[in-house]
Amino acid sequence: MAITTDLSGKTAVITGSNSGIGLGIARELAKAGAHVVLNSFTDRKEDHALAAEIASVCGVKARYIKADMSKGDDCRALIEEAGACDILVNNAGIQHVAGIDKFPVDKWDAIIAINLSSAFHTTAAALPLMRDAGWGRVINIASAHGLTASPYKSAYVAAKHGIVGLTKVTALECAGQQITANAICPGYVLTPLVEAQIPDQMKTHDMDRDTVVREVMLARQPSKEFATVEQLGGTAVFLCSDAAAQITGTTISVDGGWTAL
User: Fold this and answer.
1) How many alpha carbons fall within 13 Å on the CB side of residue 203?
2) How far apart are CA 54 and CA 56, in angstroms?
3) Class of domain 11-189+227-253
4) DSSP secondary structure letter of residue 259
5) Catalytic residue among 64, 152, 156, 188
6) Where are the domains of the chain?
7) What are the tens digits of pLDDT across the range 108-145?
8) 152 is catalytic
9) I need a labelling partner for 244 at 20 to 30 A (CA). Which of 105, 159, 213, 253 fits?
10) What integer pLDDT is reported at residue 3 of this predicted model?
11) What pTM value is reported for the model?
């Protein structure tokens, strides 16, 4: 059997995908031929314009659906409105940094809801569609923090460890059904949000750009290079390919060696 990465005819739903990692993954899946559904909690002209751009450039169907990933009903409604979901990429996430004893309860609840519970709800809604189609891919965007920890990130680390566990359970429940589930664990990724932080870090540490990136922002990333959204998108495409049909229930680190330490 020829190995292919042609995703023509497949529909991919990517949560939290109107910018950054999610948008990068959506673009790469569309380049591979998949129809894509973009998502976030906003409903702006720019959101729908992104979908139109992807459709035009890649020659696929693309649309944007507003859904608040902090709400379980919205998560499930997203899959229902999509109408099909051969590939589910659970990417939506937020962050807050504080010591455990000072961590705001509302921030904890929001991070767990968006970073972890949303993936449960979307997966629960998508699996029947994948089973009916006889094929499916669940790709959860975890983090290096799904495999290790940092201080002051209790909710984020707990949620990302939970995502890794959910991935394994999903894989076991779908074994033998042509449905796989895997987690991608990025280190630091050069997104517009991260790029915007660099000038402030330069001022704070009185360093030039290259030095502050290498010695401060990428202090724990041995490669001293950011991962890119295109690389994460390429990893997602690989996990959807025939070559990855027997890769399930595992994590793939895209972290420049962070978790090898």
Assistant:
1) 4
2) 5
3) alpha beta
4) G
5) 156
6) 11-189+227-253, 192-226
7) 999 999 999 999 999 999 999 999 999 999 999 999 99
8) no
9) 159
10) 74
11) 0.97
